[in-house]
Amino acid sequence: MVRPGSHRFVAEHLDDPAFRQRMLDQDFNDMPGIAEPVEALVPAGGVVFFHSFLVHDRSENMLELPRRVLFVHFKGYDDPDQMKAAKATAAKRFRDGHIEVMDARTKQICGLD
After folding, report:
1. d(CA 17, CA 64)
2. CB of 3 within 8 A of CB of 38?
3. What is the pLDDT of residue 24?
4. Which three-class secondary structure state does DSSP give residue 50?
5. pLDDT tens digit string along 24-79?
6. Whole-structure pTM over 0.85, yes or no?
7. Does one domain contain both 4 and 57?
8. Phi, psi of 30 (to 5 degrees)
9. 106 contact partners, CB below 8 Å, separation of at least 6
10. CA separation (Å) from 6 to 17, 32, 69, 73, 104?
11. pLDDT given at position 75
């Protein structure tokens, strides 16, 4: 699911504390200025890249089989302490059960090694 043009709206409103909180809470429903979500179908094995400000989310899995999805967010670090802090909390960025089904290479890519 993608909200077209939302990256511009997000960039324009980053200085608004109430908006920043809604953004952190992933609360974009009924937000004036952001388009309604549009489904973006990606075939199995496909890859999609989004601007980090683009409001997007997954849709429900309609199949009986689990769907494997890897979300990667790239962030630069100014110093080694920032990178250490990010690695220390990396596991908190995943839903229950996700880490347990990852192989060693995926854990490494996600900073969980």
Report:
1. 41
2. yes
3. 78
4. coil
5. 788 888 888 888 888 888 887 788 888 878 888 777 777 888 877 777 766 667 78
6. no
7. yes
8. 55, 30
9. 70
10. 17, 11, 22, 18, 35
11. 65
Higher-pLDDT residue of 78, 15: 15
Could you give the number of structural domains in the chain? 2
Question: How many helices and strands (H and E) does the chain possess?
Answer: 4, 0
Q: Are residues 1 and 53 in the same domain?
A: yes
User: What residues make up the domain containing 7?
Assistant: 1-63
Residue found by looking up tokens 């967010």 in the block: 73
Q: What's the whole-number average pLDDT of the chain?
A: 82
- State the pLDDT at residue 79: 80
DSSP one-letter code for 42: -
How far, in Å, are 2, 10, 70, 96 from residue 39 at the CA level? 6, 20, 18, 25
